[in-house]
């Protein structure tokens, strides 16, 4: 029996992996502060992914994309990849090779992947799928607090508050054990849909505010207006602990609740009531999720929610706060250790000379040889195979053919590459497009650390050996790096050796892991970062001051603007996307679990009955949903509480059923987050599919 953590989301529920009645490993809940002995359906069935029948155990190679894959041995595969990479670099320069990582990789893999890109390949062209997940919240927190840790407090604190406002988050569906922390507070849920979380809020006597998609920034401005106009702002806190309130108020002053109602559709009475609920609570939290962050104005929208939290005196106050609900399993750690285009380990900026010198010292290289910042995730994918873009890509733990915005365009770009190499455990939709596929271990077959949504570093433990023929990602990086001329010791394969180096590289950085040792992890100590060597961890940040030099939090003046794409006669409806309880991200894992696949076998489009009738659609009929970029075939699911102007699609399906065939890659100017949440579409009946 092995105690470990779930392979999926950032709640990182603890579980025991032990033989079931048939002798195969089965997952059972274990006690841990985030899940308190609970698991969702995905967690309960997670061990089934370990024995998926289409598991890859031999490297696959093909000479060109029209050919079938051939099974080859590891030396042949790695020699081939290293030769091709060396050739491309020699002919076109180091930036001709791109690396794409994942918020699902362990801290050790995230760290070594960033080092591999900068040192072994010398490329600036590295980013990861977390750019599509957390980047707006990270940028908003950096602006306001000078530091980004999704929740700067333990999740258990939230359950002790009187009121919790959830903006664009649906944990009742995406991370159900979290709802155990939300049963006592009064909930205010901000979501265009009457989501499962919104229903729970109403059942508990709370509120559901349902803005038009893409207007949450205006709603936050309206709430800030109501707080100030009704004398509910915490003026002592604003004076003592913040800067910039008056400039921010200048942007909010026009947002009377009635004006806000006009733009958002949320009744002014609800706006005033919500403001009063938050202000009169003795403890309150504002938490944001992807619904508020995945917009071309996502960073400003996060800033608007943080501005509201600051006006109420919540951040850095014990029993209150602002936080973001991280999505991917290692969404937090994944952005701290150097696989992001603009960052080095320890959450250091890659263009900071001191940061470069420190990290280069740990790596034993000349800081001048380290490349500068590269392209963000979508910009990187969109440049593949172009005249000035990368000609090869190494892909770890991600499936952008399904999960990237404007996925059809991204698939075309991937197809234009000279060389695509994927490390995966199955032939995902993106791996199926590759030239070389390297079969790698899964979560329960190797050890490593993850950092959950509350900035807590935890230990994932191996419960089984990988199948014969399978290697770990660390071994793949070692094999490629040495073939590219790197000394073997520079790319270790033992996770704890990599962790020791990561600790040194992160020391004295914003995300300081220097005190995260295997011994402390094994003891079960709650290691919320920063964890400096020899020091206590930091479960609650900002109680004594924020991370800006003056110790104050910053209000950020932000203005509402409409979504990047407007509806019109050709595309009269708004499409928004989200997750289902039974599936995770691109579905590459969960679509392989029989119970989950049978429960939700196909994409659906959720439509109001009147809207469906207008387009000649009935329950369960197949519909074609079309945006200016592409189309998706989906079964109609009628919802009487849906908005008349909006349809919803889950994004876990592939090919013609991929919701991201529709989504808009318009990018946030700061975070480079695409506008996943608002696309203009039309609906029409489709032939039986
Ligand atoms: Fe917990 Fe998330 Fe895993 Fe579900 S998917 S069991 S909520 S960690």
From TrEMBL:
Which of UniProt's keywords are assigned here?
A: 4Fe-4S, Iron, Iron-sulfur, Metal-binding, Oxidoreductase
Protein known as:
Assimilatory nitrate reductase catalytic subunit
**Can you supply one Gene Ontology CC term for this chain's record?**
membrane
Enzyme Commission (EC) number = 1.7.99.4
Gene Ontology BP term (one): respiratory electron transport chain
Enzyme class, UniProt record, top EC level? oxidoreductase
4Fe-4S Mo/W bis-MGD-type domain: from which residue to which, for each copy?
Answer: 1-52
SUPFAM superfamilies recorded for this chain? ADC-like (SSF50692), Formate dehydrogenase/DMSO reductase, domains 1-3 (SSF53706)
Gene3D superfamilies for the chain: 2.40.40.20, 3.40.50.740, ADC-like domains, Dimethylsulfoxide Reductase, domain 2
Any GO MF annotation of the entry? NADH dehydrogenase activity
Which InterPro entries does the UniProt record give?
Asp_de-COase-like_dom_sf (IPR009010), MoPterin_dinucl-bd_dom (IPR006657), Mopterin_OxRdtase (IPR006656), Mopterin_OxRdtase_4Fe-4S_dom (IPR006963), Prok_molybdopt-oxidoreductase (IPR050123)
């Amino acid at each position: 029996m092995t105690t470990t953590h779930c392979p999926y989301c950032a709640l990182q529920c603890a579980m025991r992996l032990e033989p079931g009645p048939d002798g195969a490993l089965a997952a059972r809940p274990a006690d841990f502060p985030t899940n308190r002995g609970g698991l969702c359906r995905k967690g309960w069935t997670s061990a089934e992914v370990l024995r998926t029948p289409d598991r890859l155990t031999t490297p696959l190679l093909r000479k060109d994309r029209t050919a079938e894959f051939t099974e080859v041995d590891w030396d042949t595969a790695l020699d081939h990849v290293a030769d091709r990479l060396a050739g491309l670099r020699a002919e076109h320069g180091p930036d001709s090779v791109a690396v794409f990582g994942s918020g699902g990789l362990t801290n050790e893999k995230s760290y070594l992947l960033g080092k591999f890109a900068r040192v072994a390949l010398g490329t600036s062209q590295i980013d990861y799928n977390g750019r599509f997940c957390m980047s707006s919240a990270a940028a908003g927190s950096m602006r306001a607090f000078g530091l980004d840790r999704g929740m700067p407090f333990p999740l258990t604190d939230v359950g002790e508050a009187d009121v919790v406002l959830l903006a664009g988050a649906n944990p009742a569906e995406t991370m159900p054990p979290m709802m155990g922390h939300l049963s006592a507070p009064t909930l205010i849920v901000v979501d265009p849909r009457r989501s499962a979380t919104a229903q729970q809020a109403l059942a508990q006597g709370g509120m559901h505010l349902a803005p038009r998609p893409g207007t949450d920034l205006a709603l936050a401005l309206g709430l800030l207006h109501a707080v100030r106009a009704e004398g509910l702002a915490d003026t002592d806190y604003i004076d003592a602990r913040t800067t910039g309130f008056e400039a921010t108020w200048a942007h909010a002053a026009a947002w009377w609740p009635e004006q806000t109602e006009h733009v958002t559709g949320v009744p002014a009475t609800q706006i005033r009531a919500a403001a009063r609920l938050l202000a009169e609570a003795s403890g309150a939290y504002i938490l944001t999720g992807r619904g508020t962050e995945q917009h071309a104005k996502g960073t400003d929208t996060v800033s608007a929610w943080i501005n509201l939290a600051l006006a109420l005196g919540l951040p850095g106050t014990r029993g209150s706060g602002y936080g973001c609900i991280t999505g991917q399993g290692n969404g937090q750690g994944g952005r701290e250790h150097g696989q992001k285009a603009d960052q080095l380990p320890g959450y250091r900026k890659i263009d900071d000379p001191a940061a470069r010198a420190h990290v280069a010292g740990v790596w034993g290289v000349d800081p001048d040889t380290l490349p500068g910042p590269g392209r963000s995730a979508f910009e990187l994918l969109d440049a593949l195979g172009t005249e000035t873009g990368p000609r090869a890509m190494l892909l770890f733990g991600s499936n952008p053919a399904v999960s990237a915005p404007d996925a059809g365009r991204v698939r075309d770009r991937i197809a234009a590459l000279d060389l695509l190499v994927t490390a995966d455990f199955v032939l995902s939709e993106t791996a199926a497009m590759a030239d070389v596929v390297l079969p790698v271990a899964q979560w329960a077959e190797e050890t490593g650390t993850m950092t959950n949504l509350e900035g807590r570093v935890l230990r994932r433990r191996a419960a089984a050996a990988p199948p014969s023929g399978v290697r770990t990602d660390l071994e793949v990086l070692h094999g490629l790096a040495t073939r590219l001329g790197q000394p073997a010791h520079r790319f270790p394969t033992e996770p704890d050796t990599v962790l020791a180096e990561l600790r040194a590289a992160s020391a004295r950085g914003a995300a300081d892991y220097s005190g995260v040792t295997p011994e402390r992890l094994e003891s079960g100590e709650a290691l919320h970062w920063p964890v400096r060597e020899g020091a206590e961890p930091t479960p609650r940040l900002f109680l004594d001051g924020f991370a800006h030099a003056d110790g104050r939090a910053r209000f950020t003046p932000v203005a509402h603007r409409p979504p990047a794409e407007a509806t019109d006669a050709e595309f009269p409806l708004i499409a928004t996307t989200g997750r289902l309880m039974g599936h995770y991200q691109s579905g590459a894992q969960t679509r392989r679990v029989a119970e989950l696949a049978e429960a939700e076998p196909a994409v659906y489009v959720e439509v109001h009955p009147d809207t469906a009738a207008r387009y000649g659609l009935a329950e369960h009929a197949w519909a074609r949903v079309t945006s200016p970029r592409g189309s998706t075939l989906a079964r109609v699911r009628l919802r009487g509480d849906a908005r008349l102007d909006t349809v919803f699609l889950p994004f876990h399906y592939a090919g013609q059923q991929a919701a991201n065939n529709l989504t808009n890659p318009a990018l946030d100017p700061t975070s480079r987050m695409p506008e996943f949440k608002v696309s203009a579409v039309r609906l029409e009946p489709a032939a039986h599919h």
